[in-house]
Amino acid sequence: MKTDGFADLEPPISPFRDKVALVTGAASGIGAATARAFAARGAAVALCDLDCSGGSEMARSIEEAGGTAEFIEMDVANEASVARAFGILTDRFGGLDYAFNNAGICGSPTLFLETEAALFQRIFEINVGGVWRCMKHEAVLMETGGGAIVNAASVSGLKGFDRFSSYSASKHAVVGLTRSVAIELAGRGIRVNAVCPGVIDTPMVAGAGDEVLQRALAKVPMRRMGTPREVAAAVLHLCHPDSGFTTGQVLVMDGGGMA
C-alpha cells in the first residue's frame, strides 16, 4: 500500500483518548487552558483547585462541550487534602496517565530585605511542596502503566528576578525537583518534565501590576505576552507518546527572552 512517505503522521484517533489527566490550579489561566486541551483530545480530566466555584464552572463548560471532566477540591499545601483528592480521582477514574502540576502563587513584588518569613514559607509550601506532594501520589497511580508528569516552573526558575526572590527560588526548586525525580522514575516508565513560561496573559501576571508587566515585556523580543493555550500546547507535547524519550527536561516558552 502506498503511503507517500507519511507513515509516521499522527493517526486520526488521538493518543489521549480514553486516558485520564489531572490538572492542578485548573480553575483559570494556564491550568484551565490545559484542562480544556486534554479534554478536547479525548482525555477524562480531573480539575483540581481551591477555587470551588471557578473549578466547578470550568468542569461544567468542558462537559457541555462534549468532554469528560470532574472538579475535585484540593489544597496542594495540605497533605490530607491532596490524599483525599487523589482518593476521589481513583474512585472516579480508576487510574492516572497524565498530570500537570500547575498550582502556584507569586506574591506581590517585594524587596528581599523586606520579605517576611511567612510569605517565603507560604510560597515554598505551595509552589514546591505542592508539586512534591502531588508527584508522590501521581507516581503511585502511574506505576502499573507508566505515564507523564509535567510541572509548572518558570523562566524565574532559570534566572533571577529582583523583587521576586522567593518566587524565583521556589521555581528553581521545581526545576531541580523535576530533574531529580525524572531520574528516579525513568525505570518505572514515568516521564517527568517541566515547562518554563515567561510572561503569559493570566490573572497571576495581571496581579503583579502594570509596572512589573511593562518591565518584563521590554525584555521579550516578540514584544507580546504568551497565551495560556500556547503553554497548554507545550504541556501536551511533553505528554504525547511521540515525546516518549524525553524526561528530566525543561521547555521554555518566553518569546525569546532567555535567548
UniProtKB/TrEMBL annotation:
InterPro entries: NAD(P)-bd_dom_sf (IPR036291), Sc_DH/Rdtase_CS (IPR020904), SDR_fam (IPR002347)
CDD domains noted in UniProt: SDR_c
Signal peptide residue numbers: none
Family annotation (Gene3D superfamilies): NAD(P)-binding Rossmann-like Domain (3.40.50.720)
Keywords: Oxidoreductase
Record-level Gene Ontology MF annotations: oxidoreductase activity
Family membership noted in the UniProt record: Belongs to the short-chain dehydrogenases/reductases (SDR) family.
Protein name, per record: SDR family oxidoreductase
Organism: Sulfidibacter corallicola
